[in-house]
Design brief:
The protein is mostly beta strands and 120 residues long. It contains one helix and ten strands, in the order ββββββββββα.
C-alpha cells in the first residue's frame, strides 16, 4: 500500500512477494481494477531492484501508453517503485534508465487463479 501526505509518498506494505527487492530479481507488477476517465481500467504498481529506473511506461492491451510515476530510492530505500493507470487491461510495463535504455520490458503473463494473478 502506498500513501501520500502532501508531496511525500510512503510505502506502507506490499502485496504478493517482495522478490523484486533482491539483487538481480525481475520486475514484479501488481494490478487492480480501476476507473480511468470514466471507463474500466487498470491501476498497476511495479517494483524493480535498484534505483536506476528514471522512467516507466505502462502499456494497455489496446496499445495506449501512459507515463508512470517513478519513485526510485525514496519510497523503498535502494529500490524503484512506479505506478500508473491505463484504460482497459494492462499488457506490459517498460522501465528505462536516465539514458533512455530499457532496463526491463515486462509483459504481463496470463493467470490461472486469483492467487496466481496477484503478482504478474
Amino acid at each position: 500500500m502506498v500513501t501520500r501526505q502532501g508531496e511525500r509518498w510512503s510505502y506502507e506494505w506490499g502485496m504478493g512477494t517482495e522478490r523484486f527487492l533482491e539483487p538481480g530479481a525481475p520486475m514484479e507488477v501488481f494490478t487492480s481494477d480501476a476507473v480511468v476517465d470514466g471507463h474500466d481500467g487498470t491501476l498497476a504498481i511495479a517494483g524493480l531492484d535498484g534505483v536506476d529506473v528514471a522512467r516507466a511506461v505502462f502499456v494497455g492491451a489496446d496499445g495506449s501508453r501512459v507515463e508512470g510515476t517513478v519513485l526510485a530510492g525514496t519510497l523503498v530505500p535502494g529500490e524503484s517503485m512506479f505506478f500508473g493507470e491505463v484504460p482497459g487491461p494492462l499488457a506490459r510495463v517498460i522501465a528505462y534508465d536516465a539514458a533512455g535504455t530499457v532496463i526491463e520490458d515486462h509483459s504481463l503473463r496470463e493467470c490461472k487463479d486469483p492467487v496466481d494473478c496477484e503478482v504478474r
